[in-house]
Structures are given as C-alpha cells and as structure tokens.
Hints:
Elements: H1 3-10, H2 16-21, H3 32-35, E1 44-50, H4 53-63, H5 68-71, H6 73-77, H7 88-101, E2 109-116, E3 126-137, E4 140-149, E5 152-162
Antiparallel strand pairs: 1-3, 2-5, 3-4, 4-5
Amino acid sequence: MNSMWRSVSRRSRLSLSSIMASSRPVSLIPPVALLLRQLHVGQRASLTKAFSSRDVELFAELTGDTNPLHLDRDYARTTSFQEPIVQGVLITGLVSAVLGTRMPGRGCIFLYQEIRFPAPLYVGEEVLAEAEVRKIKMSFAFIAVSCSVKDKVVMEGEVMVMMPEDQQEKS
C-alpha cells in the first residue's frame, strides 16, 4: 500500500455523533478512494454491441484471421451459415471489455478462460455480453460469462481474473 493510502486509512473515521456535535459544516461525501466497493458473489455487469462488417474486417487486418467465412458473403453462402459470421475471439473481446471496464474494472487481469460457441453471431446482430461473479478466492474471481442475441447463446463459459488491488480483501 503506498504512503498516500496509508495516511488516508490512519485518519480517524467520522461518526454520526462527531458530525452532529460539530458546529462547522461537514461534507458527507467521502473521498473517492473510500467509495471503492469490494467485488462480491452474485455481482453482475453487461454491455451490448452490434459488430459491423468493418469491425470484422479490422479484426482480420489486425490478427491475420482472413477466413472467408467472416469476410466473403459469397463464400459464406456456400456454408451452413449462409451469411458471414463474427470471429469467436472478437466476441470474446466483449467479455474482456465487461471485465476491464465494468466488473471488476480497471486494473483486473484476465488469467484464464474456458468458452464455447454454441451458435453463430452474424454481422449486424446486437449481442449482449454478461458476466456474473460465481466465486472469490483470495485475489482471484471466478466469473460466469455469456454472450447472447435475444434467446440465442453465441458464447458461454467461465473466466478467472486477478482482481485489482483496491478490490482485494485485505487480511
């Protein structure tokens, strides 16, 4: 813990009686550092996105995944999918976005994933990425994840993340 946070944690805490006894105005809004919440089992977060053809093309350019099933409508029509589908790893990126921006949030480290793709995600479909904390052990959170379009699940699985230091339980 750095010195700034040590000094904050050593300060005496306000009590209701000390606030009431004070003759000067007291702000009831604590510093932002004291508002950080601990991650808890059952906590959920989500986001939605519709991938465009351009998103799929950019991903192909960045990664070299030029499988025509993702990029070529004529080729896709010759397959059981009939239309171009979004790359699975691009879908998984939505889970990374939920974890890194919403829960646990800034500073978490994605360590492990076990995922399945039971149905395709087509370009233009709005997908809902969801995450729910299932277990917390020391500084690690085990989180169930899924991506779906209405009632169609396009990705599901479990991930393990290392929580940001400010959300880890202190011993």
